[in-house]
Amino acid sequence: MDFSAVVQDNINSLLYFVPELILTGLILLLVVADLLLKEKHSPWMSIIALAGAVVVMFSVVGQYELGTRSIFNNMLVVDPFSLYFKLLFLASAIMVVFLSIGSIELAGRPVGEYFTLLMTLTLGMFLMASATNMLTIFVSIELVSIMSFVLATYLKTRRRSSEAGLKYAIYGAFSSGLMLYGISLLYGLTGTLNIYEIGEVLAGRDSHGLALVVSVIFIIAGFGYKIASVPFHFWSPDVYEGAPTPITAFLSVGPKAAGFAMLIRFFNVALATGGGGGSESWSATAGVDWPQLLAVISAATMTLGNLVALSQTNIKRLLAYSSIAHAGYALMGVVLLSEQGIHATMFYLVIYYMMNLGAFLVVIICQDIVGSERIEDYRGLAFRAPIPALAMGVFLFSLTGLPPTAGFIGKFYLFAGVIKAGTSFYWLAIVGLLNSVVALYYYARILKAMFFEKAGEEATSTLPVSPYYVTLLAVFAVPIIILGLYWAPLADLAHHSVGFLRAL
Amino acid sequence: MSVGLNHYLFLAAVLFVLGLYAVITKKNAVTVLMGIELILNAANINFVAFSRYTDTDMDGQVFAIFVIVTAAAAAAVALAIVLNLYERLKSINLDEADSLSG
Amino acid sequence: MQDIMFYMFAALTIASAGVMVFSRSVIYSAVGLLFTFFGVAGIYVLLAADFVAVAQVMIYVGGILVLLLFGVMLSQRVTGVNMRTETLQTVPAAIVAVGVLFILFRVISKTEWLVKAKTTFEPTTAKLGTLLMTDYLIPFEIVSVLLLGALIGAAFIARKG
Amino acid sequence: MITSAILILLLPLVAFIIQIFVGKRLPRKGDWVSTGAMFAALALSVGIFIDAVAQYEPNNVLATATWDWINFGPVHVTFGFLIDNLTAFMLVVVTLVSSLVHLYSIGYMHGDPRYNRYFAYLSLFSFSMLGLVLVDNLFGIYIFWELVGLSSYLLIGFWFEKDSAANASKKAFITNRVGDVGMFAGIMILFSITGTFSFNEVFAAVADGHVGGTLLTVAGILLFFGAIGKSAQFPLHVWLPDAMEGPTPVSALIHAATMVAAGVYMVGRTFVLYTPDALLFIAYIGTITAFIAATIAIVQMDIKRVLAYSTISQLGYMMVGLGTGGYTAGLFHLTTHAFFKALLFLGSGSVIHAVHTQEMDEMGGLRKKMPITFWTFLIATLSISGVFPLSGFWSKDAILASALGFGMTHPAHMPIFVVLLLSAGVTAFYMFRIVFLTFTGEPRDKKKYDHAHESPLTMTIPLVVLAVLSVGTIWWGWVEHMLVKPELASYGSHVASAVEHAAEEHGVAHSAHTIAMFSSVVVATLGILLSAVVYFWRKISADAWAEKLKPIHTFLWNKYYFDELYAATIIRVTLFKSRLFAAFDLKIIDGIVNGTGRLTAAFSRLQGSIDLRGVDGAVNFVARFVGYLGSQLRGLQTGNIQAYIMMALFAVVLLFVFQQF
To answer: Does the predicted model carry a pTM greater than 0.80?
Structure first.
């Protein structure tokens, strides 16, 4: 491609880049507004952030008409797959703004930087979902990571938050170092950074042996750190516990989903052939059994997450482990490298978004009204604050995967996918099933504390819950029930969005 | 034997492992960050060497530049975080930052 | 000639990296890192990447290292704690490190890289500049947002209150 | 008819919604909403039933309705109703028992602070159970199955102020989930092969031979796991006795007509899926359950616990019926049992309501105080004991005949019949033990006796209605015609052969009937007489016999040393030994008397201890082991970031090694 053609392509691509441009504009607007507004805690910041996010959302929806296209000289791609994830990121960002507004932890902290960083992080996730070049993949991961470090440290005067930030930063920098080294090896092997070309090169050769395995394992370290899968999960419980709760909620949903988007795209484009155009499955290239490797990671992730969650006493930490376990479940769909599996994972991530954010919302409310994160302080909550307790019941049921909640349907799709893939993955399905029994145990423990145990002597009064929170709870809980009964629209959307650009 | 691609790769590998070792063993947070810089440098040597020795245009060099820039950004934030922790703990030893565990 | 230069720079890089890693004094470590960076810059020159070499010196030596030293000073001088860094879990770390090194050496020596030596040496700066403005326009823009975000974040965390 | 079906399903759901949200503000706290809805559902069900009778044909499908629920790609799920004779039957049973329980609860729960909540849960429960009966696919049945589990959890833990109730509900829920996992896996296997959940399509696929062999056996057994959990079969029956912590009407509902019946119903509904091996598995599980539970029941002193074990035992009978090919017999027993067991529970509730204790030690002589309760209870007891011509006689006899027929064609499996027959005697023994200890003799607690009185009308009317239904000689005729085994000739070869083993027995069964009838009457009479000798005429003293038979202790001890070894494989030997000793000590104190009684009692004690220590122990052991593993893994999270990094690196090396080899 000659010079002028490249420039022309860049110019043409702008049309496909509108949501990101608006988002960038929003970030700059927030920076300027923060400088202009005298008040440090002006509600205007959150209003601007929300309004901006909604505008971006509309423009993302509009992009569905544009079809699939590779932009900016194959650095990024716009396809239904990325749009689906972008909508999910926006939905998480918007809900986290709502969560943050009420959070007692964040009260009195400067809002300007907070929303600026939040929106920058969202931009990073957008890029992660559509990156198709190892360079954009790396840079967008860095963008998300660095913003996450700062947000995790946001309560900088508290020791736990500072410590969480430090651990996150060191672990994150280390992971991107590993990943970078992996990328450099892959670059040397294939001579290109573009994942489509990588796929072609790998498909054209039969043996790659060691170097490919090592480089991909290092790259998995980078993705695995983003989605917090075993054995790259170690940072997440500590960070989730120490970070401000709205940020914990966000980290456990947004960047995790972005990591999944990237993982799915990378594996299916670069390391597998076939598929596309609605055909059933892809097969791994290069004589390396990637599916089995991913399956082992998936099984280890859900098992470790669930087992360690059993003995937790802090609810944020418990949810951290539970979110590790859920990453393991969601990985079940990725393992197959098939359209059906990806569909299941995408579907599950949205449901996970609702139930997990919902659970964290209850944690935020309880920090406010009970003033504790310990499960034992949740005793008797059903009588003191029935609405949050009831909502928590819905979220936990859904997380467990019991009908008629959306969580059941999500798990159902995952299991259906794995089982349909044939006998070689039955073991994974069995591990998943056993895990869901273990999970029930610790979720039931919270429920038991809330519904079946009495609060201590000193705590018997009814606790007031503001209408604002009640509305938010309903926003999460009602769809979970509705989707548990009628999930066709969401499943259709996910199904429609599976098709991503397979080759240039 | 004249110096070829493999020599550079071996050099990078040694640097990489030294970096890993520093990251794992050093108590001082700043030295740990230094170790991470070693890892990044190792990767960069790979990129530039591949860019030179294989038929790959200049992508590797571009990548190296991006790595250097993002490393600067990451280091700035990480240091800010380290100093912030220092204000809380009066220490930047990582083994003392273990109140979150289990 | 090139070969001798390589071995010199490689020796400098590894030796100073060794000092960085094994020294108990933070200051020594920093100095070791400084020379490592210089050594790597030399390697870049040998690899015909003049611009990257310059960027290495400017950003790493001028920026990052100063930043790190600054961090050391700021956090240690105040309390008068001696600037030593203890080590922990050295034995398992050594085992893992040797394991990784072994794997990497095997990988490097077993793999058939697509070697096609370019013997010409031409200045890269202009070419890189063009690339950043054309093919790599979007990563370039992303990095600018990243720097803005990092700036805001670092400033927020570093400032009092 | 579909409209009625939808209404039947919606009525309790609407009642639930009304109750949970505005129940408190309604007059009488809205008990009439739930009760009215249930009676309306009953009327509609009876309507369907009459239709079914009017257009009678074996295996008649009265109506179906299917809507696309979700339809694309690999997953095609429909939602629909299937109404056939079996459904019509179950609808009547469920709505009838449920309405009576509603009515009864008005009196029983009077004054409870969460009165409206209670009725809301009852409605939710009825809704789930009716949905389970009505749906036409495996997916739907699983969803309602879980809903039944959920509402039972709420009802068992209704008095959560009691720790025991909170724990019991949790235990019930988790134990059930263990079975459900198997069931889910079974459903998914069938789905993965046939690509559909619909009963008809799955059955058709089986008939065409798409599914078969070992895989079908495995799928069938996995499905049956669900029934093991819900219908409290060995070894997952441990939750049911504890579940008595719920209010007594709930016990009647859960343990008589609905929840436990769900498993039996499910097996009946999917009957054609089971291969001969799977059926044999079911039959043996049923046999073991029937016997173990019956023997344990002998020594319990808590009236509700005895009934709980008797339920487990009777469920075992039903499973044996199904497993030996006696489709009609098994489902028939389900129906009759629903009525007489509901009656027994409601009767015991009436007693408990009067004397405020569940311990039979503190009762006695209540006959004069509570005549209606006594007479209805006696009818139910006669029925469950299999006394001619009450309903229980017919259904139990049908099962025994089925087992005997099976044994006659396959002599190796004769023990099933023998054990069942023995258990029938034991059943008669322990049931009459309740009657004698509770209603006859001198009052053992004078104060409680003086306080006792007959229950109010809302409570006694259901008793009388159920008593009338328990007499029901006419039942058998209906059922035999309505619930004919599915026409298996139309299904594929292997199923045909599967059920052939039962089909050819049909001829045998006729001759078996006479033998079974005779022997069951004899055994029941013996059991009743024995019980009367010990507990009514008190000719034999418990303590004296305990002393006399000391050598037998030792003998028993050694004999069961094998059992002990068997159990010790599950938990540690020493632990078990000490507990076994403790169990024997207990036995001497309130032990049993007469020779046979003595033996059976010792046996049942042992069974009880295996049950409590062994099975419970195994469950606890697994739980503790998992917890231990978790806490060990938790130790990895030391808080030191560098340790994390090293572990991650170590794992990277491991992954590499894994990938290479």
So the answer is: no
